[in-house]
UniProtKB/TrEMBL annotation:
A Pfam family matched in the record: RADX
Cited InterPro entries: RADX
UniProt superkingdom: Eukaryota
Record-linked PANTHER family: RPA-RELATED PROTEIN RADX (PTHR14944)
Taxonomic lineage from the root: Eukaryota, Metazoa, Chordata, Craniata, Vertebrata
GO molecular function, one term: single-stranded DNA binding
The protein's name: RADX protein
Length: 306
């Protein structure tokens, strides 16, 4: 069928009602958002953002309502989609934006693709990777992996991806989303090493829309975290309080979930795997810890400072 592209849509969407089919690859995926409220009668109050791209550039795509439980888990980073009967809207200005792995890629920030179950009902097709043709010009998924030795030089809020061997994982903890409210974030602390430093990555992992992975993080698993943000306590000693926290677009993968993921081709991931082949599993197991309370960043040494 006759296809269109994102660049053409951005220029012409206001003058059209129907759009030609669109072929895109998913580059980023947000956590699933629930926006239900007691006073609003919405059957499936769910929403998820994706960043998708074709040969002309990248834009946001929003999955709405009943399409979320039907499609969310099938739409992975790297998945190629054929979209028909979708809508184009002005982009929502307050949405979080992931940092693209390819800094040269053009971004169409004024529009977003809207996938709905009605008016019109969007038709979604997943194209298997072995059927994707080079002449379609779809970009590859690119990452920003860093090693632990590089972390100390990175600025606050820098976006990066990491891989490491888990040496510590804490119990799940809760924090209020806002003061005096009944909604909580669920999170846990983890340490991961990659052989490039004497210090581990300190990771604050909030529960994303991957409960099966979040609950199974344990010592000696290979952990990949994407779209993490560097956090520095700039008031204290910056190097001693640096850690990484998840963002809205973070994805977490552990041993058993890596096969077929786009990051397996990344050079730093391959280097980590080579380093792990040289390690003694028995020696590493002796250094691992699980559970317990983990106060971080550490409180001051004396009570008056605290």
């Amino acid at each position: 069928s006759k296809l269109t592209n994102l660049g053409h849509l951005e220029m012409t969407w206001r003058s059209r009602v129907r759009f030609h089919p669109l072929l895109v690859r998913i580059l980023h995926k947000s956590r699933l958002r629930y926006y239900g409220k007691p006073e609003k009668a919405v059957d499936m109050p769910y929403q998820a953002y994706f960043e998708v791209a074709d040969g002309s550039g990248m834009t946001s795509m929003v999955l709405w309502s009943s399409l979320c439980p039907e499609w969310y888990n099938s739409m992975k980073v790297g998945t190629v989609l054929l979209l028909e009967q979708y809508a184009i809207k002005d982009s929502y200005p307050f949405k979080t934006k992931p940092t693209p792995g390819d800094s040269q890629m053009k971004r169409f920030a004024t529009i977003e693709i809207s996938l709905n179950d009605r008016n019109p009902h969007t038709k979604i097709s997943i194209i298997p990777e072995e059927m994707v043709k080079p002449e379609w010009g779809l970009p590859e998924v690119k990452y920003r992996f860093i090693t632990r030795s590089e972390l100390d030089d990175l600025p606050h809020n820098y976006s990066c991806d990491v891989i490491g061997l888990v040496t510590f994982v804490g119990r799940a903890e809760r924090a209020r989303k806002r003061e005096h409210c009944e909604d909580f974030w669920l999170y846990r602390w983890a340490h991961a090493i990659d052989g490039t430093s004497d210090h581990p990555f300190i990771l604050e992992l909030f529960a994303t829309s991957q409960p099966d992975v979040f609950e199974r993080i344990h010592p000696m698993t290979y952990l990949v975290c994407t779209q993490m943000r560097v956090v520095r306590d700039l008031t204290e000693n910056p190097s001693s309080t640096i850690y990484l926290t998840t963002s809205n677009e973070s994805q977490i993968f552990i041993t058993g979930w890596h096969k077929g993921q786009p990051y397996t081709k990344d050079t730093k991931v391959k280097n980590f795997i080579q380093w792990m082949k040289l390690q003694s599993e028995a020696d590493q197991i002796k250094k691992t810890v699980i559970g317990g309370y983990y106060p971080f960043p550490r409180p001051p040494d004396n009570f008056s400072d605290y």
